[in-house]
Amino acid sequence: MAIHRVWVYASAVLLTIICSIFADQTVDPKVGVLFLHVLDRGYYQEGFRSFQETYGIITNTPITFSTNLDDHPDRPRWLRFTQRTAYHDGMLYGTPTAEDIGQRIIEVTAYNRKTFETTSQNIIINVEQPMEFKFLYQVEFFVKNRDVEEVLPLEVQKHFMDRVERIWESSHFSIINITSALDRGGRVPLPIEGRKEGVYINVGSSTPFPSCLEEEARPDELCTDQLEPISCEDIFSPHFIINWCNITLIDKSIPDIPDADIIPGDGVLPDGGEYNPPSNSLENRDFFLDYVVTITVPLAIGLILCLILAYIMCCCREGLEKRDSKTSDIQLVHHHSIQDNTSELRDLAKGREGLRPLSTLPMFNARTGERAPPRLPFNNDTSRIPLVLDQQEPHRDPSPR
Residue 106, SS3? Predict the structure, then answer.
């Protein structure tokens, strides 16, 4: 009996947990004020069956979220979602406008990246009327050393507002909007430590701007990004590094005066005004001259280039006589001897019997440079001709002095 009661109690507790997980959640953002809703990973982890089977065991499960309207694949235009990694909580944030007043249902689906399990929950968003006092004076700061996920937590927002309060000297202000620099057309930072994407923080108040912010927002003064404010102390650093060259003041206390010169019309043409479209029959045009110019000009250029190339190759050659006149006699003799020897070897290769090769005859005197005597007729006995020319001059010294 006791075991049965324990089982009933455990089943009731488990059913209560499951029901609480899938119950709808209602939030009430206000018009003109930043809205933030954190999607806690630990909260949605309890809806997975793998967690219920091992209830009580703390695990670091990677979870990603998908958010959309219950009847559409996207979110409302004012609502953004961000999640840095699967091991970080997701965040729904944005600033609704007067056009967004009403109720919308956001369906949140959590995915377990290890077991591929899913669980879902509906978040009912009731956008309410704006606050009693209006934020007529707004300042937009650009924080360079932060990402949007680092600024959205409430404790970080409070830390930032404490520093704004020291400059503004007023407590009637609030954060209107937080926007990543990437949503404004910024580039993704390099994967270097300390490089952040940057965040735009819009702060509004019902009291006028302090003098230090008005001086920083003057467009006629030269701004240097490295300089600190002139008339107020930079109390934001080192936690928040503000780009004082990118600060914007928005004064909504001055009503917009429409331009009196622009008178919108009713969109109807006055009497007598008719639209006359162009005629369907177009005027004939002769393209023969264009065709001739397109064809003849490249052909003429190609012909001129061919003539220049032919002149260089045919008329600017040196010739054999000019080449031989610039070549030394010894080099020419060597060249002719190589050609003669090659032809003789080819002739000898045709038959084993033949005359003695002329390559064994003397060519020139290496010391004096004199040419060899003319060749003897082929009918003489070439076996008696010495191999070296110096053998015919026994009284000369063959070696130079």
Answer: strand
